[in-house]
Amino acid sequence: MVELGFTLSSEEHGPNELVDYAVHAEEIGFDFLSISDHFHPWISAQGESPFVWSVLGSLASQTDEIEFGVGVTCPIIRIHPVNVAHAVATTQVMADGRFTFGVGTGENLNEHVTGEKWPEHDVRLEMLAEAMALMRALWAGGNTSHHGEYFTAENARLYTIPDEIPEIVVSAFGPETAKFAGEDGDGLWTSGPREAVVDAYEDAGGEGPKYAQLHCCYAATEDEAVDTAYEYWPNGSIPGELGQELPTPAHFQQAATMVEREDIAEGSTVTDPDPQAHIDSIEQAIDAGYDHVYVHQIGPEQDEALEFYAEEVLPSFS
């Protein structure tokens, strides 16, 4: 059975608003929530970047049954994996097992802020593998010491440990990382219905949940939706690997000058207010092999989009 979710975009909304949207999403029948973990927004117009672990604690206390996850955290540079393991364990206890832990190799935008060197992707993947092993050791309980290539832990022990250890769902956009997710992870997380990524994940033995985020902008007209997406999310149309390499929102804003409104209108973000366009987008992800599909509504009209999905989209999947 496919589960449908809603994005809590921490780049665009403050912490209290994110919790309000989560409560609303649960009320109208979404199955799960995903919240992004960013130190910076992509561009300054988005305007927010609350600390995700504080918001997750509020989600645990303010929602009742809906599942939620962080999509995704980078536990290798900005925050040491010992501290991330601690945060995950506490969040899972507060959520009574409703939490899913997504990880990735991160973006320079968020990770350079401590002054550490930004490694190339293959090195970051090695760091992620070591971080995952260390976090799993901590969740097993007992005293943990680790002297690895990238991380050190000395006499570390977590005393608040959940009965159900959360799965580690690994973000992947290409076959190399999808293979890693299948071999070392407990699930797959990506953006867009990337069928080749699913194939690589499953070929590597991956059997866990498969998450895909879809971008949309619901508004009264398509022109309004395109204008909103162009103002708040032009970064989604920036090509190539710039999303992992640019260091500041100002650099993303400069890169976004290459993006035209036509790029958004003709791109993968759903801007058509016709419910069938949103239904088709979800069905495309399902057909590509994803069993957890969630939508990111771009811009300030969150409650309006939630009501639109409740009335016009979700009934097609009930």
Structure write-up:
It is globular, with a radius of gyration of 19 Å. About 40% of the residues lie in helices and about 15% in strands. The chain has 13 helices and ten strands. It starts with a strand and ends in a 5-residue tail after the last helix. The mean pLDDT is about 95. The strands form two sheets. It has an eight-stranded parallel β-barrel with strand order 1-2-3-4-7-8-9-10, surrounded by six helices. The longest helix is centred in the middle third of the chain and has 19 residues. Helix 2 packs parallel to helix 3. With about 325 residues, the protein is of the alpha/beta class.
Would you spell out the secondary-structure blueprint of this structure?
Blueprint: E1 3-8, H1 15-28, E2 32-35, H2 52-62, E3 67-73, H3 81-95, E4 99-103, H4 108-111, H5 121-139, E5 144-147, E6 152-156, E7 168-171, H6 175-184, E8 187-191, H7 195-203, E9 210-216, H8 222-232, H9 242-245, H10 249-256, H11 261-265, H12 275-287, E10 292-297, H13 302-313
Parallel strand pairs: 1-2, 1-10, 2-3, 3-4, 4-7, 7-8, 8-9, 9-10
Antiparallel strand pairs: 5-6
Helix pairs in contact: 1-2, 1-13, 2-3, 3-5, 6-7, 12-13
